[in-house]
Amino acid sequence: MFLMFLGFLVFIILSVVSAVRENGKVKKHLATAGALLIVTIIGAILTPTSGTTTTKENEKESIVEEQDKKEEVKKQAELEKEKAEKNSYRSKGARKTREGN
Question: What is the pTM of this model?
Answer without folding.
Answer: 0.48
